Amino acid sequence: MIVTFYSYKGGTGRTMALANVAILLAREGKRVLAVDFDLEAPGIWRFFEDLDPNLDRRNGLLDMLTAHSAGQTVDWREYVSIVEFEAGVISVMTSGLLDADYPARVLDFNWRNFFTQSDGGAFMEKLRAEWSREFDFVLIDSRTGITDTGGVCTIALPDMIAPVFVPNHQSVEGILEVLRRAQEGRKNLAYDRPPALVLPVLSRFDSRTEYESANEWLDLLAEKLGHLYADWLPKNIGPRKILERSKLPYVAYFSFGEKLPALQDSLSDPESLGHALSIIARLIGSHLADAEAVASGSITSIPPQTADDAAQRQAVQPAAKPAGKHVICPICLTPINDWDSLPRWQWDTALGAYIELNIPADISGPQRISMERGSARRCPNPYRLKPVEHYLPADYGSFGPPVVLGFVGLTKSGKTHLLAAMAGEMQAGLRQFGIDCWALDRSLHSHFYEDRVRPLLQNNKVLGGTQEGIVTFADAFLIKPRNGQQRPVVMFDVAGGELAAAAVTTKFLDIADGLFFLADPSQIESGSYDVTFSNVLDLLKGTGRLHGQVSAAIVLNKADLVRFEEPVARWLRSGSGTLDADEFLSESRDVYAYLDSRGAAAWTLPYEEFAKATLHIASATGGVGEDGVYPRGVTPRRVLRPLVAMLAMTGVLTGAEAEKVGI
């Protein structure tokens, strides 16, 4: 999760709050990156100065942005410093090398040219994706006021904004205006962004000596800021309650110099600044899921650190060695029994390929952690079930078990187009559901993107079909729900034809967790039936996994062909960005009735056979191809809805609402 700490005016304690929250999250074993985007008045380095006296003498954000603007190939990891403290490790990207020329370099840097001439938008989006993959939390210190830098920090990058403000009208009205601009700006991005979550942080609040004024201001702030809590605060809790629990008290001692209450102050004393900062860390660390417990007082703060805790948490710091589990490769479906012994590889951006990572044996501690971060291991692939090399993140052994999904249907059912449209929209589109997503293997993803996604979504080309009678790996992603475990999700194209003759098909169905069955409206009109459906069902019955172990989603693909018919027309226009089991059930009923009314009840057979199943309306292209292209362009419609339902049915998404999907 990327969290931007913002303040409209200086003097609110914004950077202090960020630095301490970084400490508190890191001591819990979280992978934390702190980034100083306040180029004009950098300050993060001062809070960590006692831990690393040379932090201000290293390259940082400005140096990286300048290098990219000059056309250089940039690896952001080269601009990150590792800061160690007794109970953990924090990665820090300072504003830049603070030499005598730093002010001039800040003035010379042109944000407009960065975006218009150096493709800065794509560069920032790449940073965002890679940071989200390699860290649990990225904390961004934004510049004050309304600025270009502030726009990047509040619009383009964050999943959450933590506005830090003091109890005066200028500060409050300022953050409200900036938040309004940020949420509006996110709607106009080239990349889809749902509204950012907002965690207001009331700072420097004196409720001891000015008790009456403090109560008046809490009432006023609850009224003015109440709408900011609507997306995450349970309805039975008023904004005033969470404001009161999460406010940062004014403590004179910590107003002098750059101190770290997280290391120097009590975390258990409810009156202490350390305790208050720990509450903010608790809320951010839980992705706001602990709001009710914090408001009720049943969860107070992050527990005090003990020596045993420190030793244990130090062992799970960023990029530590994987858990050493025996794993099944989700790409070639073969077991790997010696995961820990496999060499590490690093993605080389310039080459567009993986290169072996050689770390000298005498390197240890923070330097080794830095070198290992983001590395991968190459699958030994002993059975050569996939002919190309493929790689998994080095910490793959610590992820949840992989979820294997297959797309079932004849060549002309539009499987390849739906797969490409899904893959093209997943990383940005799933965020509106509170789900983060990134490529599992950048090399294979890049190949699939260039071979399928780009030709379809950017060049409007009709894609060729896949070979009949085989199972083909398509793409793989790491999926992380906002309040759930990170899981690999792998997609296969299960082509039609004589599937029973292919041994790899049986192997695939032995581990498949979910299947998308694609129904083609043109085949329905002709009265034909896709025999692939019955072939796969017969094979699954032979494995004994049909009932209870595999989920199904039947997709009426190419819905644009019948877009004027009801209920197709209504569903093509609707669909929220939330996980709503009742909405999925309503759609399933409508599609079932539609197929039955067209004499295509046989297409609903998977819905009858599987313990968990849904039916959907989708269009991968939004139109009909002519002479190898889509003359009106490609506009995918509702392609992520079947995927979200499948993620719920296969346990990637958890919770009461997810459990109801497909029942």
Roughly how many Å is the radius of gyration?
Answer: 26 Å
Question: Can you tell me the CATH superfamily of the largest domain?
Answer: P-loop containing nucleotide triphosphate hydrolases
- How many H/I helical runs? 25
CATH class category of the largest domain: Alpha Beta
Largest sheet: 8 strands, mixed
Query: What's the β-strand tally?
Result: 21
Principal-axis shape equals globular
Structure described in brief:
With 663 residues, the protein is an alpha/beta fold.
List its salient traits.
663 residues; alpha/beta; Rossmann fold; eight-stranded mixed β-sheet; 21 strands
Can you describe what's shown?
With 663 residues, this protein is of the alpha/beta class. The protein has three domains: 2-310, 3-Layer(aba) Sandwich (Rossmann fold), CATH 3.40.50.300; 327-396, no CATH class; 399-660, Rossmann fold, CATH 3.40.50.300. Helices cover 37% and strands 15% of the residues. The protein is built from 25 helices and 21 strands. Strands 1, 2, 3, 4, 5, 6, 7 and 8 form an eight-stranded mixed beta sheet that branches. It has a seven-stranded mixed beta sheet with strand order 16-17-18-15-19-20-21, sandwiched between helices. Helix 1 packs across helix 12 and helix 9 crosses helix 10 (239-246). It is globular and about 80 Å long. Residues 303-324 and 498-503 have low confidence and may be disordered.
